[in-house]
Amino acid sequence: MTTIDRDPKRHHRPGGFQNNYGEFTPRSLAEVLRWRWDASRKNLPPAPSTPIPQVAPDLAFLRANAAAGAAMRPTVTWVGHATVLVQLGGLSLLTDPIFSERASPLAFAGPKRHQPPGIAPSELPRIDVVLASHNHYDHLDEASVRALCAQTGGPPVFVVPLGVGRWLAERGVRTAVELDWWDEHRIAGVDIALVPAQHWSGRGLKDRMKTLWGGFAVFAPDCHLFFAGDTGYSRDFVDIRERFAERQSAAAGGGFDVALLPIGAYEPRWFMANQHVNVDEAMKIHRDLQAKRSLGVHWGTFELTDEALDEPPKALARVRAAHGVADDDFFVLAVGETRKLPRRR
Ligand code: ZN
Ligand code: ZN
Q: Mind listing the pLDDT tens digit for each residue in 7-32?
């Protein structure tokens, strides 16, 4: 019996939300200071020794594909960090959009981006749906939300976890749909489910755990996509596989066609393990989900933690080799690069 069967609302607590497995206690100021002190003493993170690959986006293809309707080819394009342009089921979706120079409440301080976004907001095809996994600054960026709301043809639908809709409403966004874990919302024949993740939320010191966090499972006839958001490793991914097993039986085309999984921001482990997976754990999630292929994201863009910006794909190559996983089954893209996916059916 899974936790979900026992009590589907156990993540709702009097003071806020909580994870299914492993209670998350926000780090104390002393722990934050210990981490920062250790990092400065050891000169971490090291500077990247290889450039983060970046290519010019194929905008003509992406726009034509956006307008192709039923003939759309499923695609994923890495814009940077956890921002991915996804095309499936006739829709263009954007995960955790951040185009800003910094992932921070301040314009002059906080983690600065290492390279421009792979596609500027003004170059995007019209975005139908934004999937926002949680309210941390590197995943929910106010300037990016405003830019998307100003796009030609009107604002996208923002599908968000419980509580994040209020933040959007306070900024004049009237197209938000809030979901609890396992809730689903259908847009133009595409089902979008919010699923659990092992993480936390908060934009300041007083709102920790007050809004929900999560990942997304997206089911279109031509592609089943999983987006983890930010997460530590937990049993949640086995639960997710079991939950959708019938919908993803072999006869129905099998498991997720593509999973967008975080592979960066994991050092030091004593501080990060209960909120961010390392590459080994990302591989465990890839296997737990029985994803046909995974794209590694949440790396190479903002220096958030102690590993070098270019380390995650190097670690991924080692982990793939150790598990006998083919390069194309768990891959990374250059910033701006598109991967065309086979149609599910
Ligand atoms: Zn986060
Ligand atoms: Zn993050």
A: 889 999 998 999 999 889 888 889 99
User: Strand (E) positions, the chain?
Assistant: 12-13, 16-17, 75-80, 83-88, 91-95, 129-131, 157-161, 176-179, 184-187, 190-195, 215-220, 223-227, 258-262, 294-297, 330-331, 338-340
The residue among 285, 129, 194 whose CA lies nearest residue 298 is 285
Topology, domain 45-340 = Metallo-beta-lactamase; Chain A (3.60.15)
> What pLDDT score does 6 carry?
63
Q: State the distance from the centre of ligand 1 to the C-alpha of 233, rounded, in angstroms.
A: 14
Starting from the CA of residue 197, give the closest ligand: 1
How remote is the CA of residue 136 from the centroid of ligand 1, in Å? 5
Say if residue 3's pLDDT is above 80.
Answer: no
Spans of all domains in the chain: 45-340
**Around ion ligand 1, which residues have CB less than 5 A away?**
136, 230
Ligand nearest to C-alpha 199: 1
Quickly state the pLDDT bin for 1 (edges 50, 70, 90).
Answer: very low
DSSP, residue by residue, 51-112:
PPPB----HHHHHHHHT-GGGPPPEEEEEETTEEEEEETTEEEEES---SSBSSSSSSSSPB
- Burial status of residue 125 (CB atoms within 10 A of its CB: 0-12, 13-18, 19 or more): middle
Q: What is the pLDDT of residues 253-265, one digit of tens each?
A: 999 999 999 999 9
